[in-house]
Design a protein that fits this description.
Largest sheet: 2 strands, antiparallel
Number of strands: 4
Radius of gyration: 33 Å
CATH topology of the largest domain: DNA polymerase, domain 1
Shape: elongated
CATH class of the largest domain: Mainly Alpha
Number of domains: 3
CATH architecture of the largest domain: Orthogonal Bundle
Order of helices and strands: HEEEEHHHHHH
Helix content: 25-40%
Strand order of the largest sheet: 1-2
Number of helices: 7
CATH superfamily of the largest domain: 5' to 3' exonuclease, C-terminal subdomain
């Protein structure tokens, strides 16, 4: 098909690697072809017309400009809690940009779903829980790893040995309980009290108001 691009500058074949025919060195080949537009896949019979010239060879057509689509859902941390992000990768044959292809697909999807919308349907009430910024900040802190506290090696190792991985696990305990852990002394306790105080946390906290239902 690349030979067509070389013979004419009026249009461009986007799949030049397509094999049309195999010719010998002394072959003389002349071809007239018809260009059309369509959607999806159309087999050869779908192109047949009564007035087509004798000798016309009908072939299957693939009008889909999108060659490959992949998607992935990634977790995203934010001040509003754990969210998901949709990542879509679109590849086309060059006749349309991936952005335009995605935009067209979105409009088709909207059009399909609009068939289920009734003008007489009662509006859905949206219940939004208003949470102040401090609650959101502490919620994120509680879900953080103890690694983010930048503790001394001794204190960090003691917490790991005790199975304390998140700050939530730490602030849920009393100071007296912490002193019962192996190799955990007053110095380590003072360090933790100071580190927690810097971000507005403390031992034996009531964390219920900061937790989502999925955290229980």
């Amino acid at each position: 098909a690349k030979d067509i691009n070389e013979a004419s500058k009026q249009f461009r074949v986007m799949n030049p690697a397509l094999q049309i025919a195999t010719l010998n060195d002394d072959a003389n080949f002349t071809m007239e072809f018809q260009i059309g537009v369509g959607k999806g896949y159309v087999d050869a019979d779908g192109h047949r017309r009564i007035d087509s010239p004798i000798g016309t060879v009908f072939i299957d057509s693939i009008f889909n400009p999108v060659t490959r689509v992949t998607y992935d859902v990634e977790p995203v941390s934010s001040a509003k809690g754990s969210l998901d992000r949709l990542v879509i990768e679109v590849h086309t044959d060059g006749t349309i940009t991936p952005e335009n292809a995605l935009n067209h697909a979105a409009n088709v999807l909207i059009d399909h779903f609009s068939q289920f919308v009734s003008e007489e349907a009662e509006p859905v009430l949206k219940i939004v829980e208003e949470i102040d910024e401090d609650v959101l900040r502490i919620r994120d802190l509680l879900d953080s790893s103890i690694d983010e506290m930048e503790l001394s090696v001794r204190s960090h190792n003691c917490l790991e040995a005790a199975g304390i991985e998140r700050i939530l696990d730490l602030v849920s305990k009393e100071e007296s309980v912490m002193l019962k852990y192996k190799n955990f002394g007053r110095k380590s306790l003072s360090e933790l009290v100071e580190k927690l105080g810097e971000v507005g946390l403390s031992f034996d906290m009531d964390v219920k108001r900061y937790m989502l239902e999925t955290d229980h």
